[in-house]
Please model this.
Amino acid sequence: MIAHFLFFLLPFLSPATDIDITGTWELHKVIQYGREVTPQHNPYKERYLILREDNTFESGGRPYGKNTGTYTFDTSDRILFMDSDAGPEDDSKWLVDMRGDTMYWKGIGTEWAESFEMIQVRKK
Model:
């Protein structure tokens, strides 16, 4: 458990430099309250996220289906805000870091959000 936390925290200890989050991402791992819950959140291994240069996004894949909206990303504080077209209850805020083609997200803003960590891998 501690090793997992340190592995996830490590990217956030390094300074952010020109993070480019645009592109197509595949959901690789979901952690909630320190436990891996990827099989429940991505049972078909098809969930994706597209972050476009015009600050719009699209996500999809079973079991949640398609979603769209806009996003803002502040590279200085590494905060990603996702404003979902599904409504404010579906909006989210994340602390983001990257290593190579892997993007690490840590939920922020509420106790529920802070219980989540996600790892996304850039689709090649």
